[in-house]
Write a structure and sequence with these properties.
This protein is an alpha+beta fold and 523 residues long. It contains 14 helices and 23 strands. The radius of gyration is 24 Å and the shape is globular. It starts with a helix and ends with a strand. This is CocE/NonD family hydrolase.
């Protein structure tokens, strides 16, 4: 079986590579100009322990002997072959960069086992830089890294451990792996299953990853501390001091609806960076904001990544460092909005009181949910069609519902909404999911944002306070609409921990009133 899969991988890589190279050749006509196109070659690079990493190298056309160029290293995304970045690599080479893209260890034709951005992956990236400096006209003082998803995570981690990395563009990635797939102490089921399945299909998960996935998906709380330690080792936020000491210029880009790596953890990491930095959020789901650029089509994310490298590796005075460093595109037809920092995005908070006590039975899906991984937020990106629910028809036995008054003016939600409430459980463990909806005149609610929350070891019948940050977003609620907060206990996106017969009461004590705080853009 493994021999067959090896040939399938080889055929797939060869077919896609041939198609891309054929397209490049056709685009290079007439033949007299062929010599002026960037040179592409496929190479083997020795990674950590001698593991073979399959790579491609693109160098600027017509380079004279002795010339030196900035170099960009691109680790591939999870489960994606090494030709992923070829279109962008050729664009970068056209503008004077050496580009080395390599297949991360454990995937496709590269050797080794999947490390999930572990120490061997970081060592691989540094060895790829070594190789580029030894075998290409790369300038050792002008090293950059970039990547989408997995490649973004590896790039940030390498910037913490290798001082040669002077600029990074981390797109649809993570800075905190635990806060990404275990936020609110809740397993993100669909995200983990998608990553795990893709890893088994296209790569070779090592024993550590296999055991971690098994413990994670089986809710093995005895291994919780070990899983968290495993994730912390693979999180750039853990090495923040080293990154700030190295001071690389870091650009972070993500989508509001990223169901693999939600935006909150990137925003938190951004605020703590000490060097040159930029943060961009757009509509979409995981890696969908960058996807058209990978096909060579016009793309805002990649355009700004190129500008970022031009400024911080070439010294080009292109104005990107004079723009507001936080750039947000709302989930509407509106254009980009600039802010001086992340805290300015949600500086204007409006609190909606949750005055009535609500009691719900667990283990039944009320119909409110966060959608489907990699689908629902893609529909929202292109058609402004987020998940919906009929708020009046939600069964009140299984869903707690609070609604605001109608607003006479648009409410431009920007940043991170927070729920503060008091919960009284009938069991020691439980899970609930909070949803914020935009409710129109007919009672149809469009999902603005949501987040899960899980607790363990609580005393049945004893109330406790909860502060839950919902996933950051930028959403415009039309005039005449209400905001609704809905809480239920089941969502297909997550693993829930509600014992049979469990009930939850959400109350608002006079001494500690419950509320949802919604960040609204100041007009």
């Amino acid at each position: 079986m493994s021999h067959t899969r090896h040939h399938l991988r080889t055929a797939s890589v060869g077919a896609v590579s041939a198609a891309l190279l054929a397209g490049t050749a056709l685009g290079a006509a007439p033949a007299a100009q062929a010599a002026e196109t960037p040179a592409v070659r496929f190479v083997d690079i020795a990674g950590d322990g001698g593991t073979v990493l399959k790579a491609n190298v693109v160098t600027p056309a017509g380079a004279v002997a002795g010339a030196r160029f900035p170099v960009i290293v691109l680790p591939t995304s999870w489960a994606v072959p090494q030709i992923e970045y070829l279109a962008q690599a050729q664009k970068l080479a056209d503008s004077g960069y050496v580009v080395v893209s390599y297949n991360s260890r454990g995937f496709w034709q590269s050797g080794g086992e999947i490390e999930t951005a572990g120490p061997k992956d970081v060592a691989d990236a540094s060895l790829v830089i070594d190789w580029a400096l030894a075998h290409t006209p790369a300038d050792p003082a002008k090293v950059g890294m970039a990547g989408v998803s997995y490649g973004a995570g590896i790039s940030l981690l390498t910037a913490a451990h290798d001082k040669r990395v002077r600029a990074v563009a981390a797109l649809s990635g993570w800075a905190d792996l635990i806060d990404s797939i275990y936020s609110g102490r809740t397993q993100h089921l669909q995200a983990a299953a998608l990553l795990g399945g893709a890893g088994y299909l296209t790569g070779r998960p090592g024993p550590e990853l296999q055991q971690t996935l098994k413990d994670f998906l089986s809710s093995n709380l005895d291994k919780e501390d070990e899983m968290i330690a495993w994730g912390r080792k693979r999180s750039a936020a853990t090495y923040l001091d080293a990154i700030n000491a190295n001071r690389p210029a870091i650009m972070l880009g993500n989508a509001w609806g990223d169901t693999i790596f939600p935006p909150n953890q990137f925003a938190s990491f951004y605020e703590k960076l000490a060097g040159p930095k930029r943060l961009e959020f757009r509509p979409g789901d995981h890696a969908t904001a960058e996807a058209t650029g990978l096909l060579g089509l016009p793309n805002d994310t990649w355009t700004n990544a190129h500008r970022w490298f031009d400024r911080h590796l070439k010294g080009a005075d292109n104005g990107i460092d004079r723009e507001q460093p936080v750039q947000l595109k709302p989930r509407s037809d509106a254009g980009y909005e600039g802010y001086p920092d992340w805290k300015s995005v949600h500086a204007n908070q409006r609190k909606f009181a949750l005055g009535d006590s609500e009691h719900v039975w667990a283990n039944v899906d009320s119909g409110a949910n966060g959608g489907i991984v990699m689908l629902s937020n893609l529909l929202d990106q292109f058609f402004q069609a987020p998940p919906v629910a009929s708020i009046p028809l939600l069964p009140r036995s299984f869903a707690a519902v609070w609604q605001s008054e109608r607003s006479d003016s648009p409410q431009r939600v920007r940043g991170t909404a927070r729920l503060h409430t008091t919960v009284t459980p009938t069991k020691e463990s439980g899970t609930f999911v909070a949803y914020l909806y935009d409710v129109g005149p007919l009672g149809v609610g469009k999902l603005v944002t949501h987040a899960p929350y899980t607790f363990h070891g609580k005393t049945p019948g004893a109330p406790f306070g909860v502060d839950l940050d919902l996933f950051s977003t930028a959403y415009d609620v039309p005039a005449g609409h209400r905001l609704a907060l809905v809480v239920d206990t089941v969502d297909p996106l997550y693993i829930e921990h509600n014992p049979t017969g469990a009930q939850l009461t959400f109350s608002s004590p006079r001494s500690d009133p419950s509320y949802v705080s919604v960040p609204l853009r100041a007009e």
